[in-house]
## 1
Amino acid sequence: MTMTNEKALVDQLILFESHQSPFECAIRGIELPVIAEFEHDGGLSCPDFEITNRVVEADGADLTRDAFPNISRLTGNQVLTAVRSDVAPIGKRVAVLFSGGPAAGGHNVVAGIRRILGAGNTLFGVKAGPLGLMKGDCFEIGLSDVDAILNTGGFDFLGSDRTKIKTADDMARVLATVQKFKLDGIIVVGGDDSNTNAAFIADFLAPHGCGVIGVPKTIDGDLQVGDLVPISFGFDTATKIYSEIVGNILQDTPSSRKYWHFIKLMGRSASHVALEVALQTHPAVTLISEEIADKKLSLSQVVEQIASAVVSRAANGINHGVVLIPEGVIEFIPEIKALVRASNEFMAGDDVATASMAGRVEMFGKSLNSEMKTLFTGLPESIQTKLLMDRDSHGNLQVSQIPSEELFIELTEKRVAELDPGVKFAPLNHFFGYEGRCGAPTRFDAVYTYNLGLVAGALAVRGKSGYMAGVTAIGSGGKGIAIPLAGLITTERRSGGDHMVIKKALVELDSPAFKFFESRREAWARSDVFSSPGPRQLWGPLGNQVPMTVALNLGSESLSFLIGK
Amino acid sequence: MTMTNEKALVDQLILFESHQSPFECAIRGIELPVIAEFEHDGGLSCPDFEITNRVVEADGADLTRDAFPNISRLTGNQVLTAVRSDVAPIGKRVAVLFSGGPAAGGHNVVAGIRRILGAGNTLFGVKAGPLGLMKGDCFEIGLSDVDAILNTGGFDFLGSDRTKIKTADDMARVLATVQKFKLDGIIVVGGDDSNTNAAFIADFLAPHGCGVIGVPKTIDGDLQVGDLVPISFGFDTATKIYSEIVGNILQDTPSSRKYWHFIKLMGRSASHVALEVALQTHPAVTLISEEIADKKLSLSQVVEQIASAVVSRAANGINHGVVLIPEGVIEFIPEIKALVRASNEFMAGDDVATASMAGRVEMFGKSLNSEMKTLFTGLPESIQTKLLMDRDSHGNLQVSQIPSEELFIELTEKRVAELDPGVKFAPLNHFFGYEGRCGAPTRFDAVYTYNLGLVAGALAVRGKSGYMAGVTAIGSGGKGIAIPLAGLITTERRSGGDHMVIKKALVELDSPAFKFFESRREAWARSDVFSSPGPRQLWGPLGNQVPMTVALNLGSESLSFLIGK
C-alpha cells in the first residue's frame, strides 16, 4: 500500500519538472483584464490610434530632431491614443525581442502582442536580444505558444542580451533581417538605453517600411515619464520580492535581538528600488543616492547617519536594525569618485608596479591633498588595498567595484566604537538583485505587461514607428497610448563626447514619495515600527497593489490599480 | 484635489506601520482548522490524554533512564493520545518560552496555547528565552493579545535566546521563577538541544509539581521522529521561501545566459533544507552532506561532480546553472576536518607567530604528509591564508569558518579550466538563511503550529510532564499526541565526554526522498528542467502543500495536508 502511494507521488513530482509546478500551472490561468478599447464582445479587438494635442519634448529638442529626422517628422513628437476600430489589419509580420536584463512580465508582453496580432498576422520571436536581431535568429510564435508562458517570470522564452546596435554595419545587418523575414515592425522590450537604441533603429528603418516600437522595461524603475509612463514594468515585482525578504529579515531582528543587517539592493543609477522597499518595510536607515548627491554629503557624513542610528537605538535597548543601501550609492559621493580617479592616475605611474602594497599605500597617501588623504587613511584596509591593486586588462577601477556594504559596515563599526564603546554592533551583509528579476509577475505587472503587449502589437500592425507603447490611467481602467521616442531623448555630455539618451528618471527630492519617506524616517530609526509586506499574492484579498512610490507620485487615492473592467 | 488624495494615501500608509501592512492584517483572519478532539460545538475544548501501547526508546535506554529517573518513571516512555473530555481544568498557570533561532509559526504555538487554556487558566510569556526563564522575566498573555500575533512570522512577541539551563544554580533559578509565578507548567518551544534541555528541567521540576512540555521547532528539519514528528515546524516555510528565491534565480539563468549561481542554504548538521529545495526547483547540482560523508568523498571528488556538470552542460550550449550547497557541507568531508585540525596544531607552534604568511604556507606545507600536502597546495590562496591566520581569543579555527561557497567556486573554476579551457564559467555566490526564519508561516506551518500549541497547552494544564507535543496523521485530519522526551534521548560520545542528546535526524540515503532525488538528478544536471514554485500563497488554489521530502518519506499519496475538517 505504502509502496503504491509513494510511486504515485513520485510520478506526480516528475510531472512538475520543466515549469509545471502547481504554482506555474495555476498562474497561467489567472485572468488578465483588458483596456476597453482592446476588447470587443469578450474577445480582443485591434484598435487604431489617434493623434492627441499632447507634445512630448525633452531638453535640446533641436539636436534630437537633427539626430532623428524621420521619426521626429513622422510622430511630430505627439502622443497617440488608442481608439476602437472595426477593421483589423491582416498580413502584417512583426518581430519582438528582449534587450538587457530580465524583468517580470516580459513573457506577458509577448503574449499580448501575439494575441492582438491574432490569426491574421505573424509574430516572430528574436532569440537572444539585439545580437539575435542582427543575426536574423528568429522563430515564428504560434497563438498556442503563449499559453505556456503566460504569467511566468523570466525572459527565457526568447533570451536576451546587451548588444548595442549602433554602427552602419550593425544597421545593415538589422535591415537584412527585416528583408529576410519581410518585417513590417519590430518591438524592442527594454530599458532607457534599449529604447534610445530603438529610436535609432526606427529612424534608420523608416525609409524601408518597417516600424519600431519600444516597451518600457526595467526593474530599477528609472524609466518613468510622469503620468504617461507611470512606471517601467518589472519594478513592482522586483520591489515586492525584495520587500518580502527585507520584511522577513526585519522580523528576524527583534526575534534574535543581535544583528544589524546591511542590505544592498539592485539599482545603480537611481534609488527607486531602495525607496519603495523602505516605504513597504520601514527599516531603521535607508540611504537614497540622489539625496546624498543633492546635499553633497561626504562619506563620513553618511556613516555618521548610520552610526548615530545604531547608537541611539542601543540607548533604547535595541541592538538590531536594518540599513538599506542602493547598489550605486557610493558613485553619488563626489569625494569617492575623486579618490578612485586619483587612484587610477596613481596606478598608471611608472614606479608603482614594482612597489609592495604597503609601499603603494604610503606613496599614494603622500600624493594626496590633506582632505583626500584623511578620506583615504580613514578607509578600511581592504578598501585601500582594492584601490591600489594592479589594474587588469579591463583598465581603470570603477567606483562600482568598491564593495559598498562592506565599506559602510567597517566604517560604521569604527564610528560606533568612537561614539560609545559599550554599544554592541554585530553586522551582517546581503545583496539582493538577481532574486527579483525573474520571479513570476505580481498581478499588477502581469496585467500591465499584457496590456503593454496589446498596445505595442496594435501599434506595430498599424504601421506606427518611433513610439514607446504605454498604458496610462492605471487607476481608472487604463488607456493605451503611444509616446514619441524622439520626444524623450536629450543630449547628455559624458566623458568622451555627447550622447543621445533618454534621461534616467531619478528619485526627486520634492516628489510626494520622497517627502513621505523623509517625514517618517526618524520614527522608523527611533524604534521598531517595521512591517512585513509578505510574499506577493496572486489570489485572495491582496495582490491588487501598485508600488507605493508610484501611487504617491501619481497622487492616487489608494494603492489599487484598475486596468480593464 | 490631488493634494487631498495624496494626504489620504499618506495617512493610509502610516497606518501600515508596526505590523499593520495589508498582508499582515489579512493573514490574521486566515482560518485555522482544529483537530477533532480539540473542537466542540464550533469552539475549543480541552481534551485529556490516554496512554497508548506505543513505547519510544532510543539507543542506550538504560543510561537515559538513569539520567532522567523522574520523567522516565512518569511517562514510561509511552506515547499519549488526545481524547475528548467534558471537564476542562481551571486555575492552572503556565509559562511559554522560545529557545534558539526563530522559525515561522512560533506565534501560532503561543496563540494555540493561550486559547486552549481559555479564560479559566493563566498563560505567562517568558521574555527572551531560557535566560528570561532564569531571570523570571514573565508577563501575562491575555486572550485578546493573540489576535495581533496570529499567523505572523518571527519570535518577537516573546524574543528568544540560546542560553542552556544546565548547572544546579541554573535549575535553582528556574525553580525560583516557578515558585514566584506559581507555575504548573512550562512549555519550551525549541529544537533538539532545547528539547533535551526541556527534559532535564522536567526531571528536575518533577518533585516540585511543575510540568515541562517541549514543542518541536527548527527550520533545519533535523528534529523528526518518523510518523510521530513528521517534521519540525518552520521547515516548510523556510524551504518554501528559499525555493521561491532559488526558483527565481533558476528562471534568471536561461534569461541572462551567463551565470553559475552557487547558493549556500542554511542547515549545518543536516541537508534536509537543500534536499527539499532541490526537489522543489530541480537545479543542476545539489550537494547532500550526508551522502558525501557516507561515500567518504574527497574535496576533489565533490569538485569533480560540479565541474563535470559545468563542462557537460557547456557542451550542450548551456553556460549557466545553479549549485545548491548545504551550509555544513565541508564539515562532512573528512580530509578537510583533518586539515583544519592540523592547521590548529601548527598554529599553536612556537615559531609560527613571527613568521610571514608566505613563510607559514611553506612551513605548514612541509609539515603535512603527501596526501594532505596535495590537498593544501590545491586550495585557493584565500583559503590557505584563512587556515594560517593568527587565531583570535576564541581559539581554534572551526571548519564552519571556511567559506565553502567560495572554496567550491574557486576549485570548480580551476578544474573546469583543466577539463576544457574553452568553457565559459561566470560564477556568483549567495547565502540564504535569515531570509527564511521569520517569514509569515505557510498554511501548513500556520495550522500545524496552532494545533501544536493546542496540544502543548492541553498537556500542560492536564499536569503532564516530560513530553514533546505532537500532531501526527497530518494527511487525515490530525491527531494530538505526546511523545516521551526521555524516549528520544541517547548518549553521544563527543570530544570532551558523553552527552545526552536527541539524535539529529539526518537525510537517510535509503529514504524515499533521497532516492527520488538520486533518480532525477542526472536529468536535472543535463539540461534545464527546473521549475519555479513561486511565492507561498495564503489564499487561492495552492498553499495546501507539505514539504515534498516529508510527503515522500511518509509515503503519502499527495502533497496535501488535512488537519481538522
## 2
Amino acid sequence: MSASTSKLAPIPAGSSQASVAEIARRARAASRLLAKLSNPQRNEVLQAVAEAIEKAMPQILAANAADCRAAEPAVKSGDMTTAMLARLGDQQKLANMPGYVRSVASLPDPLGKRLTATELDDGLTLYKETCPLGVIGVVFESRPEVISQVAALTLKSGNAVILKGGSEAARSNDVIVSVWRDCLGQFPAVPADAIQLLHTREEFTELLSRDRDVDLIVPRGSYELVHFVMRNSRIPVLGHGEGICHVYVDAAADLDKAVAVTVDAKVQGPAICNAAETLLVHRAVAKQFLPKVATKLGEAGVEIRGCPETMPLLAGTPVVPATEKDWATEYCDLILSVKVVADEDEAIAHINQYGSRHTDAIVTEDSKAARKFMDEVDSAGVFQNASTRFSDGYNYGLGAEIGISNSKLHARGPMGLEGLTTYKYKLFGNGHTVAEYSQGLKHFKHRPIK
Amino acid sequence: MSASTSKLAPIPAGSSQASVAEIARRARAASRLLAKLSNPQRNEVLQAVAEAIEKAMPQILAANAADCRAAEPAVKSGDMTTAMLARLGDQQKLANMPGYVRSVASLPDPLGKRLTATELDDGLTLYKETCPLGVIGVVFESRPEVISQVAALTLKSGNAVILKGGSEAARSNDVIVSVWRDCLGQFPAVPADAIQLLHTREEFTELLSRDRDVDLIVPRGSYELVHFVMRNSRIPVLGHGEGICHVYVDAAADLDKAVAVTVDAKVQGPAICNAAETLLVHRAVAKQFLPKVATKLGEAGVEIRGCPETMPLLAGTPVVPATEKDWATEYCDLILSVKVVADEDEAIAHINQYGSRHTDAIVTEDSKAARKFMDEVDSAGVFQNASTRFSDGYNYGLGAEIGISNSKLHARGPMGLEGLTTYKYKLFGNGHTVAEYSQGLKHFKHRPIK
C-alpha cells in the first residue's frame, strides 16, 4: 500500500472519526441486528444498493478520477506501478458493481440451513443450523470496486464488515462506502454500521487485536499483506498464501490434452494464484511430450527452467537450468519449471513437498492413476485432465468468492458465502435434565430425522 | 502440569529419542500412508488395538500404580491435588479403553463423504469430498486413558497424532503408547508413527512452531493450558476457553420445568464447562420463581450471588451480593449468580455481553420467545426447556468427542470425527481449458448432481 498519497485524502468518512474500539463495538451491535433480517429483507436492501450505486456512478467516477490524478506523482516517482494505477482506475469494474450486487442478491440464502436434525429422545430434538459469523474485517489493495463485492457478500450472509482499502483509493472508497451506508440507513431495520471503513494502516493493525468483537479477518492482496496480517492478528485469518500449482503428465496421458492443459494452466492467467508453476513429466513420455509442449510454451513467450533430465530432451530450445529454489517459487510470470519424474509416486511426493496445497492436476487416461493422485495429493483442488485455472469460486458454481483459502480448517479452496457462515446447535426440550440420563432413568435414542 | 515428578519417568519412549522436527516429519509421512487406508482397514486395526490393550492391561495397571506411588510425595507437598491423583489412578477408566476403541471403530466412516457434486459443463464434473486433516497435536493432563480415546478418533479419521501427556502419568502413557505402536506395526500398510508421544513441555512448545507438518493443535485441559497453547502456536488451535453458560427463565416459563432445568444445569456437573454460572429471571416471574428455585439450590449446597433486585426477593435465604465480576466468572463450583431482567432483550444482551458463546438455555412455553432467543444469542448451543449440561458430543449423538470448541470457525460446540476432517475439490475433465470459457467458446452449466 502506497503511503505517499494518504495526506491527499481529506474526505471525512462516516465512521472514521470514531476510535477503532468504538468501530468494532458498533460493528458487533450491527451484526446483532443483521442476524434478525430475513433473506427477502437482505435481498431488498441489496437491490436498493445496486440502484443507489447506479445513481451515484457520476460521483464515484469523479472521485476515482481524482484518486488517479493524485496518484500521478507516485507513479512518476516509482512509488506506484502503472499496473496498480490501472487497477485503481478501472472504470469498467466500477460500472460492473450494481450487476455484481444484484447477482449476489439472487444467490440462495446461506443462513438457517439445517445441516443435521436428530431426535435425541422423546420431546428432545437437536438441530444444527447455519448462521452468520458476525463481524468480518477485510483489507484489500488498490481496487475500490472490491468494497461492493465484499459488502454484498457480507450483507447477504448477515455479517457486518469493517473494510480497509488502499490509501491511494481513499476518495473512491469513501464515496462508495457512503452510498452503501446512506442506502442502508433508509431501512429502519438495517444498521448503517453494517459497513464501516478504516483509513489508516495503524487503525487496521489495532483492529487485529479486537478479538472479542471481530470474528474473522480476510486479507485480499499481496503475499506480504497476507503474512503481515497472519503474524499480527489475534483474530482467525483466512487468506491464501502462495499458489505453487503443478501439472503432472502421467505415463498414460493423452499428450494433446496434456499440451492443452499445461499451456492453459501456465499462460491463461500467469499472475493468478491458480496458475501452474511446475510441470512434472513421467519419464516414459518425456521424450515425446517435452518438445511438443515446449514449442507451444515458446510461442506463448514462456521461459522454461528444466531439471538435468529435461535439458537434453529440449536441446533445440533455450532452457534455463532449474535450481532447488525453482521448485518452491511462485513466479506469477511466464516462467515454468519442468522436472522429469520416474513415476507417479515421485510426482505426488514432489507436489506434497514443494507445493502450496492449492491446486494440482494430473493428465492421464488411467482412472486408477487419477484416483491415486486425487487421494494422495494433499491440496484443496486435485484435478484430472483439467487446467489448474479452473480453481475459482465462480467456475466452481459458488456464485461468488470472498477469497481462496489455503487453510485446511473452516474453508478450503475457493470460499463463497458458506465460508462467511458458522452454525449453532438448537435443542428443543420439555424440561429435560441430564440427571435423568446419567441415573439411567431415561436413555438416548439418537434417531436421525430426514 | 506438575514438574516435580518428571525426573521419575525413566522409561524410554518409542519416538522420544528423535528431535521434535523429526517426530513431526515422521507424523506427516505417516499421515500420507493413513490417507490410503480404507474404512474396513482402519476398523480392523482398531479392533486389534482393543484386543492388544486387553492383553496388556496388567502391565498398564502396574505402570499406572507406579505413577501413583511416584506422585505421593507431590500430593503430600501440595504440588498435586488429590483430585489430580484420583484422575491419574482411575483404573475403571483404563479398563474402559478397549470398549471405547471398539465403539469408535463402529462409527460411520467420516472420510470420502461427498458434500457436493456439480456438473460444471459437459465432461467437467466437480466433487467436494471429506478427507483427513493430516497431523493433529494433542496435549492433555493427568488422565492416561485419554491416549486411547484420542488415538482411536485420529486413526478412525485417517490422521496421525502427536500426543503430550502430563509428566505425572509418564509410565502409564509410555506403556499405552507402546501397546498402540506395537499393534499398528503388525499391519504392513499401517505406520507405527501414526501415534507418537512427546515427553517434555519444551518438546511440545517446539511442536507448536512446526506449522508445515502439523495441521491442528487440540489442547485438552485447564484454561491456563489452553491459553498457553493459543498464545504460542503458529498452528491453528481448537480448544475451548471458558464455559460461562446461562439459564434464562422467561415470563412465559413453566416454573416447575424452570426449577428442574436450573438445578440440573448448576448441580449435575458443576466443574464441567457446560454447567450454568448465571441464572437470569424475567421480572414478571421473579417473585414467584426465585424462592422456589432457591430452596432447591440451597438443598444442593449452592451458594447464590444475587443482583440488587434479587436480594429482597430472597430475604429468608443467605445470598451474597453479586459484583460486576460475577457475571464474567466461570465458577466451576456450586455457586450461581442470579440477575432479574426487565425482558428477554435484556437477557439476550446480558448473555452476549458476559457469556462465552458456549451454551445458553431459555425456559419458556412461548415458541416465539424461544425462536428469538435462539436466533439472537450468539452461542454454539441455544436450548429451549433443556439443561445446558446436554451440550456434549455423546449426548448430541456424535458418538465421540475430541473436545468442545468455542471457536466459530471450522468446528463449533462439541467436536466429533467431523472436526478432524477437511475436504478437497476433485475435478474430472477431458482436457478442459479455462481459455475456452474466457473466450466465450464454451459456457458453464453449473448443474447440481443429486
